[in-house]
Every structure is written in structure tokens, then in C-alpha cells.
Amino acid sequence: MLDIVRAADPDYASLQHVYGATGAPAAILRPRTAEEVVQALAAAQETGGELAIRSGGHGISSISTNVGGTVIDLGRLDGITRLSDTMVRLGPGAHWGHVAQELYPWGLAISSGDSGDVGVGGLGTTGGIGLMGRSHGLTIDRLRSAQLVTADGALHRVSASEEPDLFWAVRGAGANVGIVTSFEFEAAATPVVAQATIVYQLNDAAEFLERWGDLVEHSPREISAFLYIGAGAVPFAQATVVFASDDADAARVALAPFTELPGMTGQRAQIVPYAAVPLTTDAPHTGQQRAFTHTGLADHLDRDVSRGLGQLLAEGSTQMVQIRSAGGAINDVPPDATAYAHRHQNFSVTAIAAGDSPRFAAAWEPVHALMTGMYLSFESGRDPGRIVEAFPPDTLSRLRAIKAEWDPAGVFSQNFDVTRPSSETAL
Ligand SMILES: Cc1cc2nc3c(=O)[nH]c(=O)nc-3n(C[C@H](O)[C@H](O)[C@H](O)COP(=O)(O)OP(=O)(O)OC[C@H]3O[C@@H](n4cnc5c(N)ncnc54)[C@H](O)[C@@H]3O)c2cc1C
């Protein structure tokens, strides 16, 4: 029988909130199987009201809980199963840190993101810019099939040959077309990597960023590099640089230029299981990390982008800027192959603030103007106009046609609804 948790139940307090928001749903439905997800969706539709779909509860826009509505919590669908040499089946409720830990003894890994607490469901339906991205592509680029419940309550297996339109949409805009109940990924035989943590003092942030961008773009594809910069007059930055191989000599050569950038104040590099790379805390969700972010994708950290970011860091309303490498294998995939269409940019750029102030929005705007796309998983703003940044015109029209066929009533409209009117001025 479908488990329904309400406010009076003992489990409610541990399920009502997510990472970035507190919530007080009227009912939290906790399916154990795909068939129970079908039942949960039917129950939610019968009840009406606000609906939230939750896998790991780490969505930046914090829409996987609500007040007074229904949450379908997929946390119990957290299986991690090896199907063959490299194929694995993952439940949406599994967390990427646990996936990495399970895959390690099998000699496998899947590039996900820097947080091991992120759920398979949210990241696996949107993109996955990870610390082996330049080597292995986006997480969704390794997806070979999925099982999905559509708005009419039907269960589908989707792949390149089964419901290919839905399979295309799931890889970048999955939240718009249904609830994914399992994913089959082709993992990579890269269980061990070199990981460097490097700290810099940025006396001239703009100059540093230009050099950082150039270095990352010209590094071998085994290198993926994330940079986290704390704002201030003289910002400090911490980098996580991964060389996706256990070849220590090659790693040493590839990592050395990162230690030669100006302002390096400390560094540590080691050969580690990939499972040690995503930071996994398993902390309970209490709405502890409200995020106010703006984000975009940049072709290059050229002079203008770097100067813009330097000014943003000095302006005062931004707490942190995160720069994740994209490019490499991510850009080998044709833009029309998946609903995530941004296949020419080399960097994801995200600004984080303590509050969603007009000042923060204004400070972001000069950088925003230089962006050439958007990865919607890093955006906490809910302006429907930004849809055109996430999905270029051809992608958006195809998505709208698929949505009209599979979700005409807009059951799955919570997460960057592609049917919402937008300014249609694509970047
Ligand atoms: C600390 C932190 C670090 C991060 N780092 C990275 C990173 O390095 N790279 C990266 O790419 N992303 C990163 N992210 C973003 C992350 O990928 C997204 O926030 C993702 O949506 C979280 O997935 P979740 O399942 O935990 O989210 P949830 O909050 O459970 O879900 C978010 C939304 O996704 C949709 N969704 C979830 N599950 C399903 C499903 N099974 N079927 C259909 N739709 C579904 C729903 O609309 C849901 O409301 C990070 C986020 C955080 C908080």
C-alpha cells in the first residue's frame, strides 16, 4: 500500500523540508516501486493542489517541497544495480555520493557533480556538469535508457529506439515530461582519479580568471576544474581539479600549471577513488542552505567576462562565484542530440548571494549580458523569461511539441515550464 505521510506522522518532520527550503506539505507520498509512483501521481491528481516531485531534495530552486500541497518523494527508489560490465541501473532517489561508492568496487564511475548529496533524479533529468565532464561528458550523455511515468499515468521505457522523443526530452528537460522512476547509465571504467585542491589569493581577480580560463581550455581532456571564489576586496579561491585517470605521471604534468597560477597559497594532490571526490554529508534536510543564485554559460573566460566577474566579486552583494568547467567531451555531442543543447560553452558561471536583492540582480546583469546560455539547475530565480536561455529556439519548439503531446494539462509545470510565455529573445 502506498505510504502517505501527514503532519501527525512521526516521519513527517524528517521529510517535510528540503536542502534549500522549509516546507509543510499536506501529504508526502513515498512510493517504493514504479507502479506505486503511478498510484502516487493518480492520488495527487485526484487531490489537486500544488504538486512537487522530489528525488534527492537538493534542487537549487527548492521546488521539491511546498506548503499545503502534495510531494511525491522518490527517496525509497534508491537502488543501485549492476546490469552488465559497464551498465548500471539507478533509482532517482539514490544520491550521487552513494552511487560513486557502490560503483567503485565494480571498477566504475559516473561523472556527476561536486556534491554527493545531490539526487540522481534531479541531476539526471537536467544535465550533470561534473568533475569528469571534460573527459566523459555530461551525466545525461551516459544515459542509455530510462523508465518514466507520464501525465496520463502510463509507464514507458524510453531510449534511442523506444519513445525517442521522450528520451531526448528527459536528457535536459525531464521534469517537464514526467517522473523518471529509473535510469540506466553506461558507467566509465575510471574508478580512480587524481584530485588536486589548490588555494589562491586573487590580487587581480580579472587577470587570474582570464588565465584560469585559458589554462582549463588548453588542458588535456582528463582535466575538469571547478573554482569557488569568495567575494571581497582580495578574494580567495579554492579549486578542485580532477585528472580522470590513475596515471600519476600524466596527472602530475597536467596539474602542474594550476600550481603556477599567480597567488597560489597552498595545494594538495592525491590519487583517490572517484568516490572520494563528491562531497557527501548525508545531512538531514532542514532548509539549511537557502540559495539565491544567478547563472549562465560562457564560451570563454575572456577579458570581458573576467572583468565582469572581477567587478561582481568586488561589488558587495555577491558572496561567492563558482566556475565549473564544461567543454571537452560535453561539446562533442551535437546540440540537437539532447534537450540540453549548450554544446559550445566551456564554463558554467554561478553567482551566489545571501539574499535575492534587486542589487544582486543588477550586479549580475553585466555578466549575464555576456553569457551565451543557461544550465537551469544552477538558477534559483523563477523568471519564465529565462527559459529561452536554457533552451535555444529549435530545442524549445521541439520541447513544446513533446509537452503538448505528453503533458497537455501541464501536470509537470513546476520546474521551468517550457510552455510558459517568455520574451523569446534568445541569447
Ligand atoms: C550543493 C549543491 C551542489 C551542486 N553541484 C552541482 C554540480 O556540480 N553539477 C551539477 O550539474 N549540478 C549541481 N547541483 C545542482 C543539482 O544538479 C540540481 O539542484 C538537482 O536538481 C538536484 O537533484 P535532486 O534530485 O537532489 O533535487 P530535487 O530537489 O529532489 O529535485 C529538483 C527538481 O528536479 C525535478 N526532478 C527530480 N527528480 C525527478 C525525477 N525523478 N523525474 C523528473 N523530474 C525530477 C523536479 O522538478 C524537482 O522539483 C548542485 C546542487 C547543490 C545543492
Automatic annotation (TrEMBL):
Alphabetical UniProt keywords: FAD, Flavoprotein, Oxidoreductase
Keyword Acyltransferase: no
Keyword Transferase: no
InterPro entries linked: FAD-bd_PCMH (IPR016166), FAD-bd_PCMH-like_sf (IPR036318), FAD-bd_PCMH_sub1 (IPR016167), FAD-bd_PCMH_sub2 (IPR016169), FAD-linked_Oxidoreductase (IPR050416), Oxid_FAD_bind_N (IPR006094), Oxy_OxRdtase_FAD_BS (IPR006093)
Homology family: Belongs to the oxygen-dependent FAD-linked oxidoreductase family.
PANTHER family: BINDING OXIDOREDUCTASE, PUTATIVE (AFU_ORTHOLOGUE AFUA_1G17690)-RELATED, FAD-BINDING PCMH-TYPE DOMAIN-CONTAINING PROTEIN
Annotated protein name in UniProt: FAD-binding oxidoreductase
